[in-house]
């Protein structure tokens, strides 16, 4: 198996976490666990429950809890992941570091099988661990793209990685769809089927990470400073990265655009299942089917965007994707409850733009960073993703708590796409590539 294919398999491995866990099952499941903690077991009273949870002395709506937990995990990632990247460029084995963090994340994901009853606390801890570990592994994974693909190949290679990931995540999600919808046939209730599905995501992530662990090869580090004090050196490299990044103002502008529009993307993904269940009234099985369709459409969408980027330019395709996201959020706000055909059309649109915008953002950023500092800058990239992703989930949670409705919460996310587009639109990416000291691709 060649090295690129081994690299693709990490997208295949970790996408199970982002589809089965974060995109579909975890948010509505933890919300139901939080509702049980606040209101007691369902069916014990005929009165609707409007009781809030008391979390660290603060009254929190059970419907907003999971979004606040995601907010906490993203803030922790923003602080910790840059330290990982600062050390990774000097590591003799990025491969081992990436896989070590992956296995920590997968183990905490598998442990979600033990979340039951009213024990939302365990769910909160496991989500934070899996999210931070996953972000750390991805920052190193992204940086390896520069080692395995040249400037004119990265759009295609990055897009194939994302496409492979959607195919892998969709395959496991299909199996979990069968389990959740046919749970009675195997002697499980809905909660039991969901818990086993969460377990399967952790096992899948861990097992398929073995392929890049064995297939990727180590390269001598380009950063050769001594590592006698790991924490001090990591903070030192992070400080140096932040200081020197000012020499690449257009790279920083791209990061600013990315952190806004990616925040919108991540929050739409994280809230889609809750929105579909609570605002539109769809059952869990239908929602898994819709997300499953998104996965397989996104497989083709990522490949399509990668191919079109070679003709029309990477930046132009990202801009087209952002316009598509703005349309999707607007349509979602007006979508009538229970209208399954329109919901599936919306899911089709998400699938087309989802993989393309993310894959091309990764490949374009790889052109804007100085050689030998890939893990550091991709850690900064990941930190920008994590450092503001809490804004989207926080905004979603606060708007829901203030209005007691998910519709204005979902529509509020359009602001992130508008701001990202306003920053990215006038950006001269060719000049940014030259400023970073890299060769310009033929089309960008």
TrEMBL record:
<feature type="transmembrane region" description="Helical">
    <location>
        <begin position="317"/>
        <end position="336"/>
    </location>
</feature>
<keyword id="KW-1133">Transmembrane helix</keyword>
<feature type="transmembrane region" description="Helical">
    <location>
        <begin position="252"/>
        <end position="274"/>
    </location>
</feature>
<feature type="transmembrane region" description="Helical">
    <location>
        <begin position="192"/>
        <end position="213"/>
    </location>
</feature>
<feature type="transmembrane region" description="Helical">
    <location>
        <begin position="161"/>
        <end position="180"/>
    </location>
</feature>
<feature type="transmembrane region" description="Helical">
    <location>
        <begin position="65"/>
        <end position="88"/>
    </location>
</feature>
<dbReference type="InterPro" id="IPR050495">
    <property type="entry name" value="ATG22/LtaA_families"/>
</dbReference>
<feature type="transmembrane region" description="Helical">
    <location>
        <begin position="377"/>
        <end position="399"/>
    </location>
</feature>
<protein>
    <submittedName>
        <fullName>MFS transporter</fullName>
    </submittedName>
</protein>
<keyword id="KW-0472">Membrane</keyword>
<feature type="transmembrane region" description="Helical">
    <location>
        <begin position="342"/>
        <end position="365"/>
    </location>
</feature>
<dbReference type="InterPro" id="IPR024671">
    <property type="entry name" value="Atg22-like"/>
</dbReference>
<feature type="transmembrane region" description="Helical">
    <location>
        <begin position="100"/>
        <end position="118"/>
    </location>
</feature>
<keyword id="KW-0812">Transmembrane</keyword>
<feature type="transmembrane region" description="Helical">
    <location>
        <begin position="124"/>
        <end position="149"/>
    </location>
</feature>
<dbReference type="InterPro" id="IPR036259">
    <property type="entry name" value="MFS_trans_sf"/>
</dbReference>
<keyword id="KW-0813">Transport</keyword>
<feature type="transmembrane region" description="Helical">
    <location>
        <begin position="12"/>
        <end position="30"/>
    </location>
</feature>
<feature type="transmembrane region" description="Helical">
    <location>
        <begin position="286"/>
        <end position="305"/>
    </location>
</feature>
<feature type="transmembrane region" description="Helical">
    <location>
        <begin position="405"/>
        <end position="424"/>
    </location>
</feature>
<dbReference type="Pfam" id="PF11700">
    <property type="entry name" value="ATG22"/>
</dbReference>
<dbReference type="GO" id="GO:0012505">
    <property type="term" value="C:endomembrane system"/>
</dbReference>
